[in-house]
Each structure stands twice: as C-alpha cells, then as structure tokens.
Amino acid sequence: MSADIVQIQSGDDTLVCAFIGPMNAERCNQIQKQIEESIESSGLPVIFDMKEVEFAASSFLRIVLTVNKKVGRDRFQVVNVDPKVKKVFKMSGIWDALKLEG
C-alpha cells in the first residue's frame, strides 16, 4: 500500500511528501506515478521530507531528479535527510547539482 511508503499532504503553499522506510527500487516503483500526479495536480512547490528514511536507492534519486525537473529547483526542497542517505545524494552529485541544503 502506497500510504505505507509516502504520505502526501497539500497545504496552502506547499505539497509535502513524507517518505517512510527504505526507498528501494520496488517501493519507488509503487509510488512514482502517485507522486508525479499529485505534483502535477497541485501546482505547488514541493518538499520531500526524509525524516523516516534510512536508505535510498538510485530509483529514489531518479524520482528526485524527475520532480526537480517538473517543478524547478527554486520550488523543490529535500529536508530531514539522514546522514547515510545524504552521503548517497552527495556521491551521486545530486546534492550539489540541486543545491540542496542541510
């Protein structure tokens, strides 16, 4: 069930996607379409909250890049990133390319 993987909440000025558990290839495939549809229908800036994530596979990095391309770097944030996950972002070059903070 995708609610066990991501909780998507739309506020007045942002769309928050709070991820839960490891973001491996199988779990990413289950939620990618839902995330993209939510982002397209909301038209809001997007926040990926990674507080509950201790592992991110390359499939998740693909989702991050896709969302960044759709909404633009100035309307996209990734927050509460575990140091192990941040290391994956940095090793791939995505952290600096997207100018993520934290």
What is this structure's SSE topology?
Blueprint: E1 6-10, E2 15-20, H1 25-42, E3 46-52, H2 58-71, E4 76-79, H3 83-92, H4 94-97
Parallel strand pairs: 2-3, 3-4
Antiparallel strand pairs: 1-2
In short:
The protein has 102 residues and is of the alpha/beta class.
Tags for this model:
single chain, 102 residues, alpha/beta, four-stranded mixed sheet, 4 helices, 4 strands, 45% helix, 22% strand
What does this structure look like?
The chain is an alpha/beta fold and 102 residues long. Helices cover 45% and strands 22% of the residues. It has 4 helices and 4 strands. It has a 4-stranded mixed β-sheet. Strand 1 and strand 2 form a beta hairpin. Helix 1 runs parallel beside helix 2. The longest helix is centred in the N-terminal third of the chain and has 18 residues. The model has no long low-confidence stretch (mean pLDDT 93).
